[in-house]
Amino acid sequence: MRTFGIILVVILGLIGLTFVAGRGGHESYDSKTFKPGPVIGMVKGLSDDALEGRQTGTEGAKRAREMIISRLQALELLKVGNSYAHPYELDLEGQTVEGVNLIGVIGGTAKSRDRIVITAHYDHLGTKDGEIYNGADDNASGVAGLLAIAEHFKRRKSPPKHTLMFVFFDNEDAMKAGSKAFMAEPPLPQKQLAFNLSLDQLARAEDGVFWTSGAALAPTLTPVMERVSKEAPLDLKQLAANGNDLANGLVEADLPYIALRASGAETTPDATDTFDNLHQDTFLKSVETAVMVAQAIDNQLEDLLGLPPLPSQEE
Ligand SMILES: [Zn+2]
Question: How far away, in angstroms, is 92 Cα from ligand 1 center?
Fold first, then answer.
């Protein structure tokens, strides 16, 4: 009986250890391209109850913007005009509400007019029946992913060849209002917008797979995605040719794009989308994969778009 008791204690201990390991502290995945601390901290901060689900036009959305802007300042991204904030008006059930997109820029080193626009929405559903919809996966994770890409290009002494424009959309999930407002008055001539990389819901790659859409619409993208997939911590699988359901309003302007979403994110958003339910290890692998996709697009944009190669950088 006593032996049985000891065995039981050992078994329970092992189960406990497995559980802890499975949850994955943020130290467990060692990223090569960004520091995990600020990335995890951004998701935690944006999905905090105090922000009440970041609904457009609320104090919570304003606080979300303050967090993102302080990170854009720390990373020294450039502004378009005199502010990171780009407000626009939208009609929400008969009421005029102010939506605010955020834009930060990293200048490219090559003589190219082609800009890569990297996008994620920061808004979420607010509260419903007294429950906060925190939106940790949807889409605090994508916002943190964008900032990790920015950190990669700013801090690792690997500036991009092409100018990168990071855009954080407001009111995107429900109405695609943020991306439509961006395209209605683009901050630079529309023909200079060459490509869109879109991140939405990065945190739930339950079977280690990342969905991409967009590649099937542009055959030149397929080999690039296959190469990234071989190196990246997650597999990249393409959605079907008409699978542009992950895309945003930029696609309506015929912009070539890649949209990334973790494979386990098919479920409808609900109040369980909290920071505590996020698998940090998987999330960090998703972010690293997204950084690698961004790097590949910058490296090979001319190939992707069927343009002549860039002139040599030496003057
Ligand atoms: Zn979303």
Answer: 18
